[in-house]
Amino acid sequence: MAEIKIPDALKADVPQTFWGKILSATPVVMTVVATMLAGLASSEMTRAQYSRALGAQLQSKTGDQWAFFQAKRLRSALQLNTLDIMQNTSELHRLDDATQASFTPPAPAPAAPLDASIKAALDAVAAGRPETEVAPLVAKLNDQTLEEGLRAALERANAYTTAEQPGNKTVEQLEDDSAGKPNHRDIVAARLRYTAQRYDTEARLNQAIAYLYELQVRRSNMAAERHERRSQRFFFGMLAAQAAVIIATFALAARKRNLLWSVAAAAGAAAVGFAIYVYLFI
Hints:
- This protein is mainly α.
- The protein has one domain (8-281).
- 83% of the residues lie in helices and 0% in strands.
- It has nine helices and no strands.
- It has helices at residues 8-13, 18-24, 26-89, 97-102, 116-126, 131-139, 143-177, 184-253, 257-281.
- The model has no long low-confidence stretch (mean pLDDT 85).
């Protein structure tokens, strides 16, 4: 294989020193740096798109929980309105203690204690505080801790749904058995009160889940914005590295190469330094 030799004219313009050799390699090095920064910019944009898609999925789940909350609060209100009409249009009597006990819905399991940072963010969101105050609180959240809190809230809601099933069947059976009996209206009134309380409890459980989902949505959107900023910064670094490649390439055709190579090296160093700053601090 023939040996590749650098022309003597080029050797004369480039000092055969360590710094001179570095300047000679500038076009190749800057091409590698530009390619690397382009890959980082593309990677960050892909991550931003993933976070946006994840945020959209979480927003859908949040909407479902708020829909459940609104529907159950509405059902609770309808039950209470019907009960008010019955109380105002007919005479109702108190049921005996044993029967009345059957119309007492179960209490939900105690809520698991939330991390202090999650509680602070939830309080800010529930209070409708401005985004400038909510965003710093959301930024401090730990994704794993938030996921654990959401899982606990979902399990609590599911546990309540399971616990109320026997009571629901008992209430339905008592109402069916009272049909045609003197205490039927009293049983119906007790069932309305029971159902209203049950729907109200379920609504509050769905509300707690919805708020936690909202925090996840905000976290995902903040992550997407961060990746978009990083992608933009890496893109700017790539442009600087490409500028260094162009300057170094022009230097090959110039009579005095050292000055242009020095400018190219400075541009490349600035691109690398900027990329490191973006990677570590943005």
